TrEMBL record, chains A, B, C:
Molecular function terms, GO-annotated: hydrolase activity
Keywords from the UniProt entry: Hydrolase
Record flagged with keyword Ribonucleoprotein: no
Species in which this protein is naturally found: Nakamurella multipartita (strain ATCC 700099 / DSM 44233 / CIP 104796 / JCM 9543 / NBRC 105858 / Y-104)
Gene3D superfamilies per record: Metal-dependent hydrolases
Domain Amidohydrolase-related as annotated: residue spans: 226-382
TM spans (from-to): none
InterPro entries: Amidohydro-rel (IPR006680), Metal_Hydrolase (IPR032466)
A Pfam family: Amidohydro_2
Name listed for the protein in its UniProt record: Amidohydrolase 2
Amino acid sequence: MSAAFLEGLSGVDDDVAAALAEPLIDHHVHGCFTGELDRAGFEESLNEATADPIPAFMTQFDSQLGFAVRRWCAPQLDLPPAVDADEYWHRRSTMTPELLARAMLPAAGVSTWLVDSGFWTDRLCPPRQLAHWAGGVAGEVLRLESLAETLLAEGISGPSWAQEFRARLAAAGPAVVAAKTVAAYRCGLDIDWSRPSDAAVGRAAAPLPGSPTVRVDDPTIIAFGVHAAADAGLPVQIHVGLGDRDLDLRTADPLLLVPLLHARRTVPIVLLHCYPYHRAAGYLAQAFGHVYLDVGLAINHLGVRSVELVAESLELAPFAKQLYSSDACGPPELHLLGAVLWRRGMARTLGRWVREGDWSATDAARVARMIGADNARRVYRLPADGPSWAA
Amino acid sequence: MSAAFLEGLSGVDDDVAAALAEPLIDHHVHGCFTGELDRAGFEESLNEATADPIPAFMTQFDSQLGFAVRRWCAPQLDLPPAVDADEYWHRRSTMTPELLARAMLPAAGVSTWLVDSGFWTDRLCPPRQLAHWAGGVAGEVLRLESLAETLLAEGISGPSWAQEFRARLAAAGPAVVAAKTVAAYRCGLDIDWSRPSDAAVGRAAAPLPGSPTVRVDDPTIIAFGVHAAADAGLPVQIHVGLGDRDLDLRTADPLLLVPLLHARRTVPIVLLHCYPYHRAAGYLAQAFGHVYLDVGLAINHLGVRSVELVAESLELAPFAKQLYSSDACGPPELHLLGAVLWRRGMARTLGRWVREGDWSATDAARVARMIGADNARRVYRLPADGPSWAA
Amino acid sequence: MSAAFLEGLSGVDDDVAAALAEPLIDHHVHGCFTGELDRAGFEESLNEATADPIPAFMTQFDSQLGFAVRRWCAPQLDLPPAVDADEYWHRRSTMTPELLARAMLPAAGVSTWLVDSGFWTDRLCPPRQLAHWAGGVAGEVLRLESLAETLLAEGISGPSWAQEFRARLAAAGPAVVAAKTVAAYRCGLDIDWSRPSDAAVGRAAAPLPGSPTVRVDDPTIIAFGVHAAADAGLPVQIHVGLGDRDLDLRTADPLLLVPLLHARRTVPIVLLHCYPYHRAAGYLAQAFGHVYLDVGLAINHLGVRSVELVAESLELAPFAKQLYSSDACGPPELHLLGAVLWRRGMARTLGRWVREGDWSATDAARVARMIGADNARRVYRLPADGPSWAA
């Protein structure tokens, strides 16, 4: 890991810088695109929230994320920092997906990628491929709604549905280290989080009209999935806060999860991303011994402003309850950026606290290691010998 | 434009400073007071939120806005920065409204004022007068609730009401560049935003008991106004977030507008002011190609803290989707302050990003120009030869 | 008051530093523990939110509050700043509660403590004891729910209940300078805040099954208590925002209090703590002439991040409407820390504003005195000769 993330900063303690340069565990990420993109497709992948084409009067490069791509990813393509968007795009468009991935991923300094393997499976590389390109190892995060959709697409429905769902969870290999729900996208978080009976699940999973594509948004099926994953002993990741426009941000508020947090206390529950509700999420991570959070995704979208987001995430949540993720999805720039921006945000924040005597350098370095990797290793029970379980 | 806004700051790149010194378009503002004020009246005009008199135990000068007035407006009256409140008031009270306006407005460095011409028409100068004093040009923002009240006051009601409302919109002159709704003040944003039928509008606009004053707060009439303005091709400004105490801040949350944003996509929709919901507003500006925002009004009320507000506004919203406004209303100090504080907030924020290598100076200067004027020129289709359309 | 709070900071104006070093009024605080603690008990007292034991995989020392204890309290025990948690605990565990209190409390530089005397009366020292150890004076804040519980425990119920409640309030001694409600913990703030009739209160205060402990959570009784306190002329403190896990943070939003703020305007209403709703609370303090706020409790829990919280609290609320509190409860470290962190946050914030020319040093020093003591003296009508009324 080069110390590019320190460029332009002064007064960051050496021990803190060294701790931040150590390999990260990206505990929630997606694969890279495997196919070519046109410029419109690339720009759309820089805007998590929109379902629209980028308006003709603008370029999505003119955003914090776009500026951060030009600043931090251009040097990986042998271009100067903050190179023109057109020039960046031109260089990028000459490269294959693999070349791009190989240019970006190793520079992220990530040793372990925990990959949501149930999204855009036709467009994104599988976990093993991501790890191979990056020079690390990968584990898998099982997306509960995708498993539910698989069962429905296979024609399973009715009374045996719940049983079969549990069987699939039980049969997941050792590389599956967590489950994830996108309830926020499908039905919102303001649902009945009590455990549904198998009979109720069976009724919700009624035979479908013969559509080849299924989109699960039934709260009974979704709540069931979370309980089944927790029963199977899997840590449960929950998407919270910002996301695409399908999501109603008002019902992506983590405070809506309180009934679930009370009901399910046997496995870690990890609140993903959280912006702009990261302060409320920090409160929950303090209030519940089994609740964790990250501020991934938003780190990338905030670009240079992620410094303040990272600092705001270091408020109520105990340091053992925080994790690093990029939530990168698609362009491998995002896998790199998440790591650069998190490290830079931590360096600026911790650097100042040490410099002004509020924190010791030893503590700052230790917290950097906890959030960067140690906490994830404990939450997901990752063996030191990653490859034995890796996807 | 003098560079007063840079006083006391160091390390702001010259190109960035120069870009920030260029003339602004204040895309949402009101007129100046045309009559004399006593001190109580002046102090009340420094408190947007209250309907109470300022309590006897305090002065509203003891607020961020009051401190900012003393800091940045005193020099326009040949007083030292941060002069005593009593001395400031004394000097100010010797001046006519016109002298005050001429002391403050030109110093704002604003070339174009888009003026809400439907509020306090008996107390505030009209757009043309504001522009004349300031040495710029003015366009008009048509306040939809005021138009509705005009129709009702004229005795129009029932079935023909909707038709007449549309006719008035169609007859608006070329100086009318946008419409505005204060739904947040009248009925809150948590209403049915679907298009009401003319019949429903006619029922809502039933004959009134013969009161000379009318306050429209009917959600059917208000939703109709927004649809009619959009049908007429006018950009729609929507008051969001902080405002006076009549407003229930809980129902001034921009996330309540999502149904409207989905339904009306043919004209720009501009979320005004937004504090403390500016991060959620930024999310909407990213999610919807036709949605814009500003953080006016709050900039003035936060005084020196507007630096952080301006920085927070530079998060999710693409840079082509952000605008400058003061929302100044009444004392011409507010028209000046909005411009000084926005420039100062941008200078401190962009200055640091450039200094630490996160942004290039070229990009920073370009974004300053976009938000300061270029975006507004595009959104409101302002001709280069302003005077031909100006009020 | 030593200037420990300035350590590591540079460029803080001398007058501002001197103003911040003056004695504070801690307008909302609890007593110190009178008994010994084991380490688990101590760590739990560093986590306001949780009802769980601290998980085995972590220590609550690894939090902003824990780091702040080690940084700022260790020197009071003749240990170096940021000493190891084990070493800190070891030294602390050799000391009696009184020795600890005498090590911490005087260093807080607080002249007057206004103590909630109705919570954990078996575990916390009474106001007079706190003041004695600290070398200051104490007033009392009457906890309305505790008074209600006392009446119920005495077997009072039914029609005479309201009358008796009023009689007890009227009989409160001169040391009782305010009342406080913990409605947020009991029923949430989203209740009917209109004044209940005595008959309705009597029905709510029906004879209880013979439980020795009573927990009042009936909204009629709670709303009645607030009205009765206001009728008695007592300022009313209202817990808002973060607190323990019993509290549903969604119903601890101060915007839910608007109906009460409209209805009761004859006494000061003080919003306590407020995080993460402190910006909305600032809006209310601007909107209502009788509304105040503090950001206590959160200051301690945010540790070094309290700098930003303090700065954020200096936005909409006029400076005459802000107060200092620690909300310390239990370990006397918390009574000290609140004062150190508030002073440090103010020093960093005001220091910068003065340095960059946004505020004058005179203004900054004056605002420090207003928030630190002067406002509280006015709100609670504290006589200059404290001891005559002190508990």
